[in-house]
Design brief:
The chain is built from one helix and 18 strands. It has about 375 residues and is mostly beta strands. A 16-stranded antiparallel beta barrel has the order 2-4-5-6-7-8-9-10-11-12-13-14-15-16-17-18. The longest helix has 15 residues.
Length: about 375
C-alpha cells in the first residue's frame, strides 16, 4: 500500500476515517498537494509552501523456518521508516506547481533480513522513493516528471481494512528474506511471491486526469520502454458502503502484458472485505517463458473507533503461482495466511500492531517446511 501504503489509518470512526482514506487514494492520482496531517515549515523561497512529514516504524520479528528460529530487530518494510518534503506554489487559482522529495532509511528491513540477522544488499544510507516535480491544473489534470509512482503503482493495494501496516496484499513484506528449507537452502519468500503491483516507482513521466465523480485515469512512460495505464475509484456507493478500487495494464521488458487490480469495501458497521489479483503474459525473452505468473489475495476485517483511536482486526489468504522470473520454477505454488490487529493512538500519532503469518511453498521434487512469522511493533508518524 506504499506511497500511501499502504496502511490507511482512520483518525475517527470507520465512516469518518474513510475521508482520510479517500484523500490518500486521490493523492495517488495526483489530486492533493501534500499530506493532510503535515504542518507547514519555513521554506527557502517565499513563493513555495513547504511541508515536512514522515514516520519511524520499528518492530520485533520472530521467525521459524522449520530448522531454526530467531528473534530479530527490524524496520517494517510494509510501511518503511521515511522522511518527506513537499513544496507547493500557486500561479493562480487553477494552476499550481510542486515538488516531492521522499527518501527512506531502513535498518534490518523485514523485506530482506535473513534468519541469521544478516541483510545482504541493504543500503547503508537513504534510498529514493519520490524525487519529482509536477504541474497541476484544476480542470485539465496533473503531469509528474521525475522518480515516483508510475500510473500502476499501488493498484494491487487498495485497502480500507485499517490493518495495512502489518498485513496487506504484498505478503512478502513481513519476512521476505527468510528462506524455505533453512539458511542458504531454498528460495526466499520474496523470490516466490509478488503481488504484481504494476510498475512500482521509476523515473517516468505521468499524467493524471482530474477527479471525475470519484474516478481518475492515469498513464505513464518510464525508462526501458515501460508503460502503463490505470483507473482508480474512491467514493460512497450507497447502502452504507465505501469503496476504493483500481485496475491497471502495464508492459515491462520481457513481460508482454500485465493486468492487476484490487478493491476494498468498508461498511458503516465496520465490516470490510478486500481482494486483489493479477496475471502476466511473458515474452520469449523471459528466463522461463513457459510460466504463467499469477496471484490472488483476499482479506476479511472489522474496524471500529474507540477512545484511543481506531482498532482494526483482519484475516487474509494469498496465493501465487510461478511469479518471479529468475527464481520461480514451473509449477511453483505459494500460499500464505495471516491474522492481524492494529490499535491506533490518535493523541500521539501512533499505530501499535501485531500479526502472524504462515508461508507454504509447493515445488516439484522438494518438500519444504512452512515458514511461520510473527511481527509486532509501532509506527509513529510526524
Amino acid at each position: 500500500m506504499e506511497t500511501t501504503h499502504r496502511s490507511l489509518r482512520r483518525p475517527g470512526g470507520a465512516v469518518r476515517g474513510f475521508a482520510a482514506t479517500a484523500a490518500v487514494m486521490l493523492a495517488l492520482a495526483g489530486q492533493t498537494t501534500a499530506p493532510a496531517s503535515a504542518q507547514e515549515v519555513t521554506s527557502g523561497n517565499d513563493n513555495i509552501r513547504l511541508t515536512l512529514s514522515g514516520q519511524i516504524n520499528r518492530g520485533l520479528l520472530h521467525v521459524d523456518d522449520g530448522s531454526n528460529t530467531a528473534l530479530l530487530n527490524v524496520d517494517n518494510d510494509g510501511s518503511s521508516t521515511r522522511v518527506r518534503f513537499v513544496g507547493v506554489g500557486n500561479y493562480n487559482e487553477e494552476i499550481a506547481v510542486g515538488t516531492v522529495f521522499e527518501v527512506q532509511l531502513e535498518s534490518n528491513s523485514t523485506g530482506n533480513i535473513k534468519i541469521d540477522g544478516s541483510a545482504p544488499g541493504e543500503a547503508d544510507g537513504f534510498t529514493k522513493r519520490n524525487l519529482e516535480i509536477y504541474g497541476n491544473h484544476s480542470r485539465f489534470g496533473r503531469i509528474w516528471l521525475g522518480h515516483g509512482s508510475t500510473a500502476s503503482d499501488g493498484t494491487s493495494e487498495a485497502d480500507l481494512s485499517g490493518t495495512g501496516v502489518i498485513g496487506y496484499s504484498s505478503v512478502a513484506d513481513m519476512a521476505g528474506g527468510i528462506e524455505f528449507g533453512g539458511l542458504g537452502v531454498g528460495p526466499q519468500i520474496n523470490e516466490v511471491f509478488s503481488n504484481l503491483d504494476g510498475l512500482s516507482r521509476d523515473d517516468r513521466i505521468r499524467y493524471d486526469t482530474p477527479n471525475l465523480s470519484g474516478f481518475t485515469v492515469s498513464a505513464s512512460y518510464a525508462d526501458s520502454r515501460k508503460s502503463d495505464i490505470a483507473l482508480r475509484f474512491a467514493g460512497d456507493v450507497g447502502a452504507g458502503l465505501k469503496l476504493v478500487g483500481a485496475v491497471a495494464y502495464s508492459i515491462n521488458g520481457n513481460i508482454d502484458s500485465q493486468v492487476n487490480g484490487s478493491l476494498s469495501l468498508l461498511h458503516e458497521s465496520g465490516f470490510n472485505v478486500t481482494a486483489a489479483a493479477g496475471a502476466q503474459d511473458l515474452q520469449a525473452g523471459a528466463v522461463n517463458p513457459n510460466r504463467d505468473p499469477s496471484f490472488w489475495y483476499a482479506k476479511l476485517g472489522y474496524l471500529w473507533g474507540g477512545g484511543l483511536g481506531d482498532t482494526a482486526i483482519g484475516v487474509d489468504y494469498a496465493s501465487a503461482e510461478e511469479v518471479q522470473d529468475v527464481v520461480a520454477a514451473t509449477g511453483d505454488e505459494f500460499t500464505s495466511y495471516g491474522v492481524f490487529v492494529v490499535q491506533s493512538i490518535d493523541r500521539i500519532a501512533t499505530d501499535l500492531y501485531l500479526g502472524a503469518r504462515n508461508h507454504k511453498l509447493d515445488r516439484v521434487g522438494q518438500n519444504y517446511d512452512d515458514i511461520f512469522a510473527v511481527l509486532g511493533g509501532a509506527r509513529i508518524k510526524f
